[in-house]
Amino acid sequence: MGLLRIFLRVIFLGVLGVVFLTTQGEVAETADIEVNVTLQTISVSVTSNGTWNMGMVGVGSTTTMANNQKITILNDGNGSQTYTLQVTNTGGPWTASSTESNGQDKFVLSGVFSATADTGVVGANFNTGTNDDVIKSTDPKTATTENYAAETNATANGVSVSAGEARALWLQFKAPSSSTVNTQQTIAVTIGVIGG
Questions:
Q1: Which residues pair with 85 in a beta bridge?
Q2: Euclidean distance between the first and final Cα of the chain, in Å?
Q3: CA–CA separation, 91 vs 44, rounded Å?
Q4: Distance between CA 95 and CA 108 in Å, rounded?
Q5: β-strand 106-114 against 188-195: which pairing, if any?
Q6: Are 154 and 48 in contact (CB under 8 A)?
């Protein structure tokens, strides 16, 4: 019986030795990796014509920015970004329409992005075909190849604008069909950015 016990102990230790050596061999084979991360800085600035002074307009009339009035926007972040637009202050009793229809104390403000060198964006370029260029007050709307984009006369839009690139923003204003006030109204539009 004494011999049998010794024999079993040797087998048991031998199996442990094999497992131990295999485990040791796997651990010895390692490699390191590096993870480098740069956070995207999202930033936009208005570099020219931050105010559009339309002056006096007629009830129900439509006014579109001229070439010398277009607003220049610069992506001064470090990656590509897409723009959003939202009416954030309507200037008193007036409200911003969410459709192309104006009404009493309700105006329509639309926007189109283009390359800064584009000079031919005109009234006919707004809200055409499937394009929805109306700037809403309810929430920011993101530029796409159809939203805030002209079908003709524009060589760029507000989508995936590279770092350091500028875009022009053209606005079109459709006055209320009637108004309870006849004093100057100030409307604020917020330009937002989304990375990518």
A1: 141, 191
A2: 78
A3: 24
A4: 9
A5: unpaired
A6: no
